[in-house]
Amino acid sequence: MLSPVRRAMAAVLVPAGLAAALLPASPALAATHRSVLSAGATTEKDQDETLLQSARAYATALGNLPGPALEQAFLAGMIPHHAAAVAMARQELARGSRPELKAMARNIISTQSKEISRMTGWLHTWYALTPESARMRVPHTVQQLRTPITTWMDTTTAQLSTVPPGARFDQAFMQAMIPHHETAAIASTAVPGHARHEALTTLAQQVVAAQNAQVEQMRTWLHDWYPS
Q: For the chain, which residues score pLDDT lower than 50?
């Protein structure tokens, strides 16, 4: 059974008419993308897997880009991804109830705000670009593969504001932040071995480690606090 936030998000994971717009270059990527578009996300597990398949297809497309293009596309996508996480974490601070979860939210805000500044600075220093101008350079196919993730993030952030404060909000926050972190970690796996700058590889590896660790912690809390 879907939570209110997940019911509201279900329609944005596979937008109508998106299939015709997405034309992945490789047969493997095309097969992955077809499975994403055909998935019937009717349970929380289905929705999460559909979103993660989108993230995997996006990461594959990023990894196929040459070094400078990969760096620009990754940074252009990860900056707003982090910004959405910060916005969600601020909602947890304002409307959640669990001290442990509020502490994690403060960590997300602090860590990812610093990473946003660092990534924005790299775009300027390495490529004389802003996040918006970098986004405009991302190949259309790659940008389209990210569209379901971006739409999901926007909808999630908006729908969280409709959840009552307290324990219900804590639960909804974790159910939203887990796949949010997972998509960031998946996208970050495209960087090592392909980026030109070692600093970006290090950051991507840190994102994978930190966000996967927080995912596991939130899964434990969901199990312990909401066993039903």
A: 1-2, 4, 8-9, 11-41
Instruction: Kindly report the number of other CB atoms within 10 A of residue 100's CB atom.
Output: 13
Instruction: State the CB neighbour count (10 A cutoff) for residue 64.
Output: 18
Tokens of 126: 């390495």
- The kind and range of the H/E element at 150 are helix 140-160
All domains of the chain in start order, with CATH = 67-225 (1.20.1260.10)
What pLDDT does 203 receive? 98
Contact predicate 223/175, CB 8 Å: no
- Cα torsion angle, 182, 184, 190, 196, sign: negative
The structure tokens listed for 20 are: 């015709």
So what's the pLDDT on residue 19?
33
Dihedral of CA 182/187/188/189: which sign? positive
* Structure confidence at residue 21 (pLDDT): 30
CA dist 38 → 53, 141, 226 (Å): 11, 18, 31
User: What tokens appear for 83 in the block?
Assistant: 């910004």
Asked whether 21 and 144 are in contact (CB, 8 A), the reply is yes
User: Can you give the pLDDT at residue 5?
Assistant: 54
The vertex-154 CA angle with 120 and 192, nearest 5°, equals 45
Nearest to 153 by CA among 125, 131, 120, 181: 181
Contact between 90 and 113 (Cβ < 8 Å):
no
Contact predicate 123/131, CB 8 Å = yes
Dihedrals phi, psi of 81, to nearest 5 degrees: -65, -45
